[in-house]
Design brief:
Blueprint: E1 6-13, H1 19-28, E2 35-40, H2 48-51, E3 59-62, H3 72-82, E4 91-95, H4 102-111, H5 113-118, E5 119-129, H6 133-136, H7 141-148, E6 152-156, H8 163-176, E7 181-184, H9 203-209, E8 227-233, H10 239-253, E9 257-264, E10 271-278, E11 281-289, E12 297-303, H11 308-316
């Protein structure tokens, strides 16, 4: 008898919706399961892997392109490699970049015979930012695609909107996808039994949305105006300098900045400082202690009309040595 296929949960959602928060919940809650995790992000300087909690699971990071474009071959190779020791985990989780169109990712599980024979796409879980959804969905086609392809939608950050806005968001989601189960959440706090191992993926329904899904050709395109800028420094960051700069910059340019995220080495602190933002909404928290050795700060901006030289100069000016 053939071994049962390993279930794969695909976590998608636009920039800053709360995908990594959901992933961290899955990895830290006591459910007795072990998952192999693949994290993909947009940009050369990987940071999402460091935002994922320190867990027993192995985390594979792909940051040399969008998972739905140039690194699909890498995804297939990683899955094939993992399956050589499939008895070591109960399932697989893939977290895509916020700019990923789910169609080519889903396609991976059906066009590659080796992958298809060993793993099964269990559910496409899309995390939606209730606060920013209505202002972005008609402009960013990836966001609409993410909702349309979802089997389960986590309508996240519901605490940041009023009842009328929430109602409009749900109506728009229903117009894009009337089949998905919608779960309202704060900080991606959905019961894991409603997200994992749901056997929710329905290829027949998806083919109605994307009839050419199983064709090898891929015409996926990104908004050419959206770029990713990655900044690093080995010098400690002076907290007041950084706070004053980043707040001023976000207040002035927040409309152009889709996503901000950073792991910072603040002067005199033993723990990492985790900074995240979506447009003008910013959040921060203390992360895990720094490991012995290099404490390199990383700050990533994803947005439009961004000047890398200008941003790097301002970031370096926040260091103690500046």
């Amino acid at each position: 008898m053939d071994s049962p296929k390993v279930p794969v949960t695909l976590i998608t959602g636009y920039l800053g919706a709360g995908k990594t928060t959901l992933l961290n919940r899955i990895l830290t809650e006591r459910h007795g399961k072990k998952y192999a995790v693949i994290v993909n992000e947009f940009g050369e300087e990987g940071i999402d892997n460091e935002l994922v909690v320190d867990a027993d699971e192995e985390i594979f990071e792909m940051n040399n392109g969008c998972i739905c474009c140039t690194v699909r071959g890498d995804l297939i190779r990683i899955i094939s490699t993992l399956m050589k020791r499939a008895d070591e985990f109960d399932g697989m989780i893939i977290e895509t970049t916020g700019l990923a169109d789910p169609a080519p990712v889903v396609q991976t599980f059906f066009v590659d015979e080796d992958v298809q024979s060993k793993v099964a796409l269990d559910a496409v879980v899309t995390v939606v930012d209730a606060k920013h959804f209505l202002s972005a969905v008609d402009e960013e086609h990836e966001l609409a695609e993410q909702v349309a392809f979802a089997d389960i939608i986590l309508l996240n950050k519901t605490d940041l909107v009023d009842a009328d806005t929430l109602s409009h968001v749900k109506s728009k989601i229903h117009a894009l996808n009337k089949f998905a189960k919608v779960i309202e959440t704060v900080k991606s706090g959905a019961p894991l039994e409603d997200v994992m191992e749901r056997h929710a993926f329905d290829l027949t329904r998806i083919l109605e949305i994307e009839p050419g899904l199983l064709d090898e050709e891929d015409d996926h395109e990104h908004d050419e105006d959206i770029i990713s800028i990655s900044l690093t420094t080995d010098q400690p960051i002076e907290p007041e300098k950084f706070s004053q700069w980043i707040r001023g910059f976000i207040m002035e340019r927040g409309v152009d900045v889709l996503r901000t995220k950073g792991i910072l080495n603040l002067e005199g602190q033993e723990n990492r400082y985790v900074f995240q933002g979506v447009h003008m909404v910013m959040d921060s928290a203390w992360g895990a202690p720094w490991a012995p050795g290099n404490r390199s700060s990383k700050l990533v901006f994803i947005g439009r009309n961004l000047d890398e030289g200008e941003l790097n100069e301002a970031f370096q000016a926040c260091t103690v040595a500046a």
